[in-house]
């Protein structure tokens, strides 16, 4: 199990971004982490993968553990070796490299045999990439780049995969594909932490969900309960009652909700 | 005609030397975004170590060159770890300034080590010549070109094909993403300095070979690599090779023909030719002949 306990993170020694976040990703599950812009979702991922110091942040309290072993404060490459992979927000592929070089870079920690096996797996999973293996990655479409980024992260055969907004800037049809893909990844034995703003997509496949607002977890429930929750329906799924609500009816002051759960 | 051939070959030899220096700059620039002004000092130190292995210990030239490169690679990695690593995340300008400091320190160290005597490496070329088509060619010029191309070819293959080479290129492109792939970015920085210092040492050995001895101040020749990397593009190894050869030949041809056809330009005009080319390139094509413009989808 990959877990975060009472995590506090500060940037530049003054900006407290996470104020005691706890969450758990059990083995064999998809866990959704929802929340608006600036809630600290990406910071949670950075803290879990050792990328905080690149952004002048640090964990000031709390722990990140993998099966009880402390990960917090380890350098990023060590965390990848421990079996926690990630797909960063905005895909971040190596645009000047070919598709195949991108995948190989993802397998940096893997052995030579694992790399060729991983390439075969990636091409079987994403036939589009197989067709374009020698092309410059920067010229792929947004959806293809997202698939490349996911394929690259899977090259290291992570036990846990952290996905930061995979649906961002991707056509709705591709979002459906990505959804099925994430389920497929879970089925093949990699547990997933899915950070999303597209709540309906995330909750449709997640087993458990967390809602993060201004650095605090304000809700923590199994996904089906979240799907039925009135506040989640209104604020995250855009539904009121049985009808699909109109944005005209959304009142800004109602958004300033105090979460009591 | 023989003048032309002799001049071209001398230029190509010189160009090979410049190309090696250019690659040394390019490797560090690509990995860390810093222009390494310490290169001239690394070059002269490399020549010193090569000379020591050759003269004092009496090893054959080839072996002493390889050992000199190895020693400089280690020194390069130490310099990176001690002086440059703390500058990671700071503006490239600050780090470049640190390399200027490193240059001065190393140059003084080299001056002390070499002393007032002329530095020689125990090379088999000397002033030997071969006759080709009636032209008398210095073997050192041919050797410079061949050795330079082989060495650069090896570095290029390493970067293009090997796993570590891929990781180095990835680091050059995006450090944070490379970290997320499990690449030890700091180690890649160290490695790039090691390779750069080894290439500088090779350049030093090639520069000193075939001469009757050089002084410490000859290190400044390495600054001719600046026009080379500007012409070739700061991040292109292929560009360094072609630009190195172009500039070497341009300089050599000027040395041969300028006193005949344009004596009013004065003596030693060839020395400034590389810099003239640099200024023209900067005006016309600031990213160089082979420098990458960013890959963007439109």
What does this structure look like?
The complex is a heterodimer of chains A (261) and B (298). Chain A has 261 residues and is an alpha/beta fold. Chain A has a single domain (2-255), classed as P-loop containing nucleotide triphosphate hydrolases (Rossmann fold, 3-Layer(aba) Sandwich). Helices cover 36% and strands 27% of the residues of chain A. Chain A has helices at 41-49, 76-82, 99-106, 112-125, 127-131, 142-154, 172-187, 199-205, 223-228, 230-235, 252-255, and strands spanning 2-11, 15-25, 30-34, 57-66, 69-70, 84-87, 160-164, 191-196, 208-213, 216-222, 239-240, 243-244. A six-stranded mixed sheet of chain A has the order 6-7-8-3-9-10, sandwiched between helices. The mean pLDDT of chain A is 89. Chain B is mainly alpha-helical and 298 residues long. Chain B has a single domain (2-284), classed as ABC transporter involved in vitamin B12 uptake, BtuC. Chain B has helices at 2-32, 39-56, 61-84, 92-114, 139-161, 163-173, 175-180, 185-208, 225-232, 237-261, 273-284; strands spanning 129-132, 135-138. Chain B has a two-stranded antiparallel sheet with strand order 1-2. In chain B, a hairpin with a 2-residue loop joins strand 1 (129-132) and strand 2. The longest helix of chain B is centred in the N-terminal third of the chain and has 31 residues, at 2-32. Chain B is globular. The A-B interface holds A 49-51, 54, 75-77, 80-81, 86, 88, 92-97, 101, 104-106, 108-109, 136, 138-139, 152, 156 and B 89, 163, 166-167, 169-170, 173-184, 292, 294-297.
